[in-house]
Design goal:
di-copper center containing domain from catechol oxidase, binds copper (II) ion, signal, mainly alpha, Tyrosinase/Hemocyanin, disordered N terminus, 4% strand, two-stranded antiparallel ribbon, globular
Length: 367
């Protein structure tokens, strides 16, 4: 946004903020069969042994445990972000949240939204493997399995209190005239069960990078999830003819009614008062990467329906919502992506193929 004049920038800020802001230590069981593979690697090596991402409910109980334990480990490792950049980046987990907060206006509603988030989740997966001895791949959450009927949503295996991420927060009355009021919200308080019930969220709310210790909140909206995460919305997204249309249908617009699958997961879980509904700080809920892995699988599914054309198809604005290119041009394969202290810088090109050499993972199943 550097080249946007400040008036326009604050206009964007107000618009988005008002619409979306509400948006063991390795005590691992010993004999877990390891899934050897490459994941993320130095640039341009051949991807010979991709790790394979699987749907959460298809994992064995010990695999689910291993993943959740690795996240707990990552939450305890000391952060690498310089204190003057983000005083609230206490853990390695927070490092990634801080990176997302700082780039919020540069990585959403832009052409590189999906490439950046592919890079982001692959880096998280890689860190769990290299820093927390996790031996599997990042699991994904196929929400289409949980929203027909939408009343099933809170019973998704992803919200399981032992073999999942825990469930909803208790009902918080709130204010229904709040512009961030998500239709159908049912919670809003601190998550009270599961492995993250005592988790300390440090960063946020919104764009704050100060240390603001508090609980993890969720505010599930089964209605919203049913409306925006069902198979019909998924098919509509997959039927788009080119990347520009595909990513716009997936991203949706900056209002609840205009949500796509991306907003469906964020507001279906985060509602008004949950972590996942905060455009800046949503990676503070570990479910974030389950949702984004599935959005990534969606993109890969779309790419694989016409690999020849779609492995290099990229477009969309450099600047947020600049769909008419009034502030700048469109993103190309050479567009740079950064995750700060979390990874080396790459370009969009390196994210286009999940088995392309830099990335080295696969999915067990495609849409
Ligand atoms: Cu994001």
């Amino acid at each position: 946004m550097a080249r946007l004049n400040s008036k326009l920038k604050s206009g964007f800020y107000m618009l988005i903020a008002s619409l979306l802001c509400h948006f063991a230590i390795l005590a691992r069981a010993s004999a877990i069969p390891s899934q050897e593979g490459q994941g993320l690697q130095p640039r341009h090596g051949p991807c010979e042994r991709p790790i394979v991402r699987k749907e959460w409910r298809t994992l064995k109980k010990e695999e689910q445990k291993e993943y959740l334990d690795a996240v707990q480990c990552f939450l305890k490792l000391p952060g690498l972000t310089p204190k003057e950049e983000a005083p609230g980046a206490i853990s390695r987990f927070d490092d990634l949240v801080a990176t997302h907060i700082k780039q919020t206006f540069e990585i959403h509603y832009v052409g590189h939204f999906l490439p950046w988030h592919r890079f982001f989740t692959a880096t998280y997966e890689h860190s769990l493997r290299t820093e927390c001895s996790y031996t599997g791949a990042q699991p994904y959450w196929d929400w289409t399995l949980d929203v027909t009927p939408s009343s099933n949503f809170p019973r998704s295996p992803v919200f399981h209190p032992e073999f999942g991420f825990g469930g909803n927060g208790p009902w918080l009355e709130g204010n229904s005239s709040d512009p961030g009021h998500v239709p159908g919200r049912t919670g809003g308080g601190c998550v009270i069960d599961g492995p993250f019930k005592d988790m300390v969220v440090h960063l946020g709310p919104g764009d704050s990078v100060e240390d603001n210790p508090r609980c993890l909140t969720r505010d599930l909206s089964p209605y919203f999830a049913g409306r925006y995460l069902a198979m019909n919305q998924t098919e509509l997204t997959l039927s788009q003819p080119d990347f520009g249309h595909f990513t716009r249908v997936d991203d949706g617009g900056p209002s609840f009614e205009a949500s796509g699958l991306h907003g469906g997961g964020h507001y279906g879980v985060g509602g008004t008062y949950g972590q996942m509904g905060d455009l800046y700080t949503s990676p503070g809920d570990p479910i974030f990467h389950m949702h984004h892995a599935n959005l990534d699988r969606l993109w890969w599914s779309w790419q694989m329906r016409d690999a020849e054309a779609r492995l290099t198809d990229i477009s969309g604005p450099i600047f947020m919502m600049d769909y008419d290119n009034l502030q700048g041009g469109n993103v190309t394969l050479d567009f740079p992506l950064t995750l700060g202290v979390n990874a080396e810088n790459i370009t969009v090109r390196e994210t286009m193929d999940i088995k392309g050499g830099y990335l080295c993972y696969d999915y067990d199943k495609l849409y």
